[in-house]
Design a protein that fits this description.
With 161 residues, this protein is an all-alpha fold. It has a domain at 25-134. It is 61% helix and 2% strand. The chain has a two-stranded antiparallel sheet with strand order 1-2. The protein is globular, with a radius of gyration of 22 Å. 12% of the residues are buried.
Length: 161
Amino acid sequence: MTSIADSSVSIQTSSESVPSTPCWLGEVVLLVEHLCKQGVLPAINERVRFARRRFGQYEMIDFLAVLFGYAISGERTIEAFYERLAPFAEPFMALFNREQLPSRSALSRFLTSFPPAAVEALRALFLEDLLARPLTRIAAERRTAGPSRRTVGSLRHRWDA
């Protein structure tokens, strides 16, 4: 029997059930890091306002964190997202420099009272960010359509033959 040992690796087992990290959490980390690096998250805190600045202990960024996570997660319902996120709520919110995940009822109240002016402010902020770093047409084609076109074209050629 051959064994490969590495002193820097330690494996521990336990009979205790521990939930696995959601597969989409890494994507949320990348998004948050990018938005922070580009100054988008601080800009949201500074520029997007509406009459109810705070919802009890929550601020707008708390709800946007949930919505970003939900959008990235691909979970079918917000309820499923909350259930999957529950064991990781604290580190998830820490990504946004926040401490507590808003309850589903608080999120519902937030979404109900979110006025069109605040939606427009968010839209303008994201558009401004997009236009600040435009993709060149050639780079965009290479990243998105380029390889796919060749693959589809070669498949069509093979099918027609």
